[in-house]
Amino acid sequence: MPFRPTLPRSCPRERKLTSFLAAVASLSDPLKPTPSPPAGAVPAAPTPAAYNALMSAYSRAGRPDEVLRLFRSLPFQSTAPLFTTLISSLADSGRHRAARAAFSSLLVSGLPPTTSVLTALLKAHRTASVESVYHFFSDFLAAMAAAGCTADAAVYNCLISALCDFRRVDEACGVLDLMLDNHIWPTIRSYTTILRGYCEQGRILEAERLVDTMIEVGCPPDVITYSVLIEGLCSVGEFGKVERVLEESQEMGWTPNSVTYTIYMSALCRMGFLDEAFRQVDIMRSRGVSMTLETVNILFDCLCRDARFSEAVCLLEYSGELGWEVDVFCYNTLMSRLCEVGDFARVLKLLVDLIKKGIGPDMFSFTIAIRSLCGAGKFQVAKYLLDNEAMSYDVVAFNTLIHGLCMVGDLHGVIEIYMDMTSRNVIPNNFTIAMVIDSLCKQKKFLTAINFLLEPSVEYLVPGHESLGKCLVLGLESSRKCLVPDHFIRLTNWLVKAKGLGYVLILLRKIRSEGLALDVFLFNSLVRIFCWEGYCKHENFYEVSFILDSMLECLSSQQTT
Fold it and tell me: What rounded mean pLDDT belongs to the chain?
């Protein structure tokens, strides 16, 4: 008799918990990821199949150098599948020029180009432009014709997919007509790719009409097509239509699978329809649809969103007895929800539990803990966490602490963390710069804020430490060739509200002297700020006119250059 988890004694019985446990009970064993082969490995047999298997394993592990090593050491003539694996690995790793060179070698060898090669190479061209995609597709068709091959639907599907990635869905629809002109019938994948493009752009009515068209032309949608449609309907909150599509599935000749229900349940959870999300568990069980780890994770998030924190903690504590292999995602989910409601103590306890159980907190776990410590006013402890150089923190973790310090007006702390992140080669983003500007303006350090806006260097934050500043600067000034509009608007808001019109003039003159672009949008935003603050009817309006004249001079100087 199979093991069925039951509620631990300390957990109350309730329908949602019962549904969650039922999902855990029917959860199949997750597939363990295949370990990456060691560097320098050789195939067990000197055959094309053995070499391709090992090259594919290296490719999946993201190790293109090992794939290239094996390809160059082939003890026999290369085959089309081996070229395909090589080109795919190079394209996936961003080595697009090498991928195109490998394709040229394929053509020189006399081997026919395959659809898989086209798919891989189009990935390389998607980083360029849609014109590049069209040009390469034309060259590929010519190469196929020269090799005596005829393009089929799979080849045209590659073009459709590339166009949809560029959001050229209407052009992708035109490829369907091109296929018919060449006596090639579009496949389910042809239509489904376009359907996904419509849904991603919010063109749901057109997506529904496309499904109707598929039925009319004798290309009935499959479960993947309907799952894509359901995801699109969920994105605009059309849950009634989703229910109708699921109810009519048997009549329409398709069966929803675990992916279909996971998409639906995730959307219900995000929108707060928690009871409906849990109801899907019973429907899945009645239809014999197996649960996945993602399904269980969504249900656990539903419990957390429903503020069932005690039950969620209880489930994590007894996960071993339930036969549920909990990963760091579930802990992060619960910690994030607890942080949102201000239960900071329990967040830190869960972080300790993660470490004790050997599950291993990740960077997101520590970032949540830092946010909780900031919410509790424990900034020094948050700094201690951030000082752990064994963890490679990203800009979000640093921004979390900088934001917390900015909210309490700790300018010294903001500068300290900003210096720390630059010294650890973490590049500040726009949010970081905005928080530093806010911190400076709160302390009325307007001149420093102006200098920092134009050149975000610690040299302006730590007077008298120029050598230290030069050491810590990461070349941000060289990477920012234009003024960030949001930062300009943010700073001018502070300056106008603080009656610092003289500082606004200084800012504009510095912008002009630096040769930075100042467009009409920024001009309009500044005028709007003046109007909101009542300067249009102010007795000292002449001061504003000086600023407007200065802005006009900036605009005119740009137009002449």
Answer: 82
Specify burial of residue 164 (Cβ count, 10 A radius: 0-12, 13-18, 19+): buried
Percentage of the chain exceeding pLDDT 70: 82
Question: What tokens were used for 235?
Answer: 């994105």
Q: What is the pLDDT of residues 429-481, one digit of tens each?
A: 999 999 999 999 999 998 888 888 888 776 667 654 333 333 333 333 434 44
List C-alpha distances in Å: 294 to 25, 238, 561. Answer: 14, 23, 56
pTM given for the model: 0.70
pLDDT at residue 221, rounded to an integer? 95
Query: DSSP code of 168?
Result: -
Per-residue tokens: 425: 């080669």
CB atoms within 10 A of CB 241: 17
d(CA 197, CA 167): 7
Residues 512, 440: Cα–Cα separation, whole Å: 23
Please give the full DSSP string across 321-363, using - where no structure is assigned.
HHT----HHHHHHHHHHHHHTT-HHHHHHHHHHHHHTT----H
| CA nearest neighbour of 51 among 36, 73, 33, 19 | 73
